[in-house]
Amino acid sequence: MIVDFRKVTAPLPPLALMDSPISIVDSFRFLGTTITRDLKWEPTISSLIKKAQQRMFCLRQLRKLKLPPRMLAQFYTAIIESVLASSITVWYAGATVRDRLRLQRVVRAAEKVIGCRLPSIQDLYISRTRRGAGPITADPSHPGHGLFSPLPTGRRLRSIRTKTSRYTNSFFPSAIRLLNTK
């Protein structure tokens, strides 16, 4: 897959690796996340929503069996929330508002089935991003450690200058923004 955002692109020569031609694809799946050549996250989110809705059937069946709300909430956390939050730190900041609302709709449906409040998709993203950024800031040998440089006051981190919204919505700049808003 070739990711190229230049305004004027020239046709590329065929690629070969050890005399074997390499086919160019528009998207591929890596660890359950669909990465497209334009770095749009709609296919990933659609796949996650489909999986979560299939699991919602089981949640509804458990409610019909009169399970207590606490057990239903545990089922939701283990089976549905884990699907919705898979690699959320990768795609959430770059997701469209429409896709975020589609994900939140699944959470609201689960809230109605269970009968109690559940963490929103945004809350899941914030907690997972902070949890992922913590070890990076604490480990000087991590390749991304240098991106989390503190300001002279020591209370906040230096923001990463970005030129594109695509980079602004990637993990490191968004993690720094979240850590600065504690």
From TrEMBL:
Organism: Takifugu flavidus
Alkylated DNA repair protein AlkB homologue 8 N-terminal domain segment(s): 41-82
Record key words, sorted: Membrane, Transmembrane, Transmembrane helix
Lineage: Eukaryota, Metazoa, Chordata, Craniata, Vertebrata
Protein's name according to its UniProt entry: Alkylated DNA repair protein AlkB homologue 8 N-terminal domain-containing protein
Superkingdom as given in the UniProt entry: Eukaryota
tRNA-binding in keyword set: no
InterPro entries linked: AlkB_hom8_N
Keyword ATP-binding attached: no
Membrane-spanning ranges: 75-95
Molecular function GO terms recorded: 2-oxoglutarate-dependent dioxygenase activity; methyltransferase activity
